[in-house]
Amino acid sequence: MRKTIGLFCAMAVVLAWAGRAAAHCDTLDGPVIQDARRALNDGDVTPVLKWIRAGDEAEMRRVFDLTLSVRATNAKARELADTYFFETLVRLHRAGEGAPFTGLKAAGRDFGPAVSGADKALETGEIDAVAELIAHEAKHGIVERFKRARAAREHAGDSVSAGRDYVAAYVDFVHYAEALYETAHRKAGGHGEAEHGHR
Predict the structure, then answer these.
(1) Which residue in 62, 92, 103, 169 has a CA-CA distance of 20 to 30 Å to 27?
(2) pTM of the model
(3) Which among 76, 97, 118 is the end of a domain?
């Protein structure tokens, strides 16, 4: 099971590296905005502070207070103020990840079985289904790359073009394996964990 969970983490990184995975922290129905709505409804900024670095807390509190005062004006002001609050929160969260803020994304986006499975696992406390899914995909990915590299290797000396085909397959295979291995042996912890405030 420990090896399977390691592959779960590894595959997440490989998918991000390959451009197939997307974070859902910037969607209007994602976990960050859900906490933001809760904070506004309760008049308490605390639920969103876990999503940002401790150094950004003062700005977040300032924007939250401003949002509360403006949103009481009328419905249009409320909509604009809420959007400003959401955008600021996601921008600060993304900055903590070392990622750019590219705007809020519409609700209802499909992020695939890994993201939905990971969220479901946290809700239910059951990791087996998503861990097995990711382990299966990781094994499939590395086996397929191995087969391509092995087949190309057999003909690498036939021509310069065939040699280049082998090098391309070799690089893809080795980089994929390296990403899986390094992530599986990475210490557990979130992005920017030391800098985040946990109150």
Answers:
(1) 62
(2) 0.60
(3) 97
pLDDT tens for residues 7-18?
Answer: 444 444 444 433
Q: Which of residues 58, 82, 97 is at a domain's end?
A: 97
Per DSSP, the residues of the chain read -HHHHHHHHHHHHHHHHTT-----TTBTTSHHHHHHHHHHHHT--HHHHTTSBGGGHHHHHHHHHHHHHHHTS-HHHHHHHHHHHHHHHHHHHHHHHT------B-TT---HHHHHHHHHHHHHS--HHHHHHHHHHHHHHHHHHHHHHHHHHHTTTT-HHHHHHHHHHHHHHHHHHHHHHHHHTSPP--TTTTTB---
Express each pLDDT in 123-135 by its tens digit: 899 999 988 988 9
C-beta neighbour count of 29 within 10 angstroms: 13
Contact, 166 vs 153, CB < 8 A? yes
